[in-house]
Amino acid sequence: MKGIVFVLHGRKNKLSTANLALIEKTAPRLTCPYKIGLLEGDHQTLEEAIDGLLAQQVEEIIFLPILLFPATHAKEDLPQRAAALLEGKLPYRILATLGTTQAVSQYLIQQVEEAASADSTVLLIAHGTPHYEEPYLQLQQLAEEISQATGKIVYPAHYHGDHLYQEVLVQHPELLIIQRLFLTEGYLAKKIKEEVVQQRGSIDVLLPTLQDQPALAAAIIERLEEAACIQS
């Protein structure tokens, strides 16, 4: 019997409930037990989730990172902590992050199409990292998919690291469709919105994040189908 751990970012100083309802909605379709494990904070920790599944005597644990891109949490924190408890004891595997799912791509295309004016340019902003290039390569691919589907120019950019979104804002004073590619309407997503409005007023179209969006549930289901852990 397999077990699923939905791995969320979490917060150090409090329990975040963002997107938990979407995960719970997938539960009736699961064909195996599951737990939710948070990477940050002292509540519902990743280790508690693993221990909970071990207590149910699962034979394999599948980790599904509820993260958009493979940066430090997906590349280092999750693999290291999973290995510390399971290496040599129980088979396990870590699924890919959600940014490369068809569900996310189609959601972004729909968002842009619904918001687009005839000559608008799109700015796609993700978290970013100075440590890995893969997140930006995946963001570039998303931008290309959106551009091909909508006929719009789409600029991929980050909040942290290289390829900063502020550089695009300076180069493009005209109206932009700005998609903040974050899983929650949290601190950084709000900060980006505030900075854009402060610098540019209300000329831009600011699209919502993925928080509580059906597309996020669809992305989760897409990954679970790849792992054969959900009913069709």
From TrEMBL:
For molecular function, the Gene Ontology terms on record are:
lyase activity; metal ion binding
The superkingdom listed in its UniProt entry is: Bacteria
Q: Does the keyword Secreted apply?
A: no
Q: Which Pfam families match?
A: CbiX
* InterPro entries reported in the protein's UniProt record: CbiX-like (IPR002762), Sirohydro_Cobaltochel/CbiX (IPR050963)
Kindly list the residue ranges recorded as spanning the membrane. none
- From the record, what ranges are coiled-coil? none
* Alphabetically ordered keywords of this record: Lyase, Metal-binding
What this protein is called in its record is Cobalamin biosynthesis protein CbiX
Q: Which organism is it from?
A: Enterococcus pallens ATCC BAA-351
Q: Name the lineage.
A: Bacteria, Bacillati, Bacillota, Bacilli, Lactobacillales
